[in-house]
Amino acid sequence: xxxxxxxxxxxxxxxxxxxxxxxxxxxxxxxxxxxxxxxxxxxxxxxxxxxxxxxxxxxxxxxxxxxxxxxxxxxxxxxxxxxxxxxxxxxxxxxxxxxxxxxxxxxxxxxxxxxxxxxxxxxxxxxxxxxxxxxxxxxxxxxxxxxxxxxxxxxxxxxxxxxxxxxxxxxxxxxxx
Length: 177
Known about the structure:
Blueprint (H helix, E strand, L loop, with lengths): L2 H23 L2 H24 L5 H24 L4 H27 L7 H19 L6 H30 L4
Helix pairs in contact: 1-2, 1-3, 2-3, 2-5, 3-4, 3-5, 4-6, 5-6
């Protein structure tokens, strides 16, 4: 257990706190702050792991797990709170993440390899955090078309990222990468 892995665990522990604050207390400010803290710890865990050579196979699993759980729960919460376009993003996230899980297991079994995140995954996570924080903070706003545009940007980013992951997976699987 090292600092980056502890930060990933903290992110995982923040998820139910976010869901409670957003869904039941309906405190969008606290919910937004929780997501900001989650985003900062996401950045810090990767930075510290690389800077101090603390990258581990456990971290390669915990970090994206924390990302995926945060993404799925926040999108699900927004969908349940009445932002219907989030159901499209929710379905896309589930499909993409299932592919990543089963693709990762396949690569591990075939090549004893744990694949870490790449630049387009990190960029997608940054875009996700910025956009989703905005949507959480202003989900009650009357600016529904604007919210749909922001959600559309997240969906577009996820589609491009998913295509990148598929290409990357097959390149590694076929040892062309």
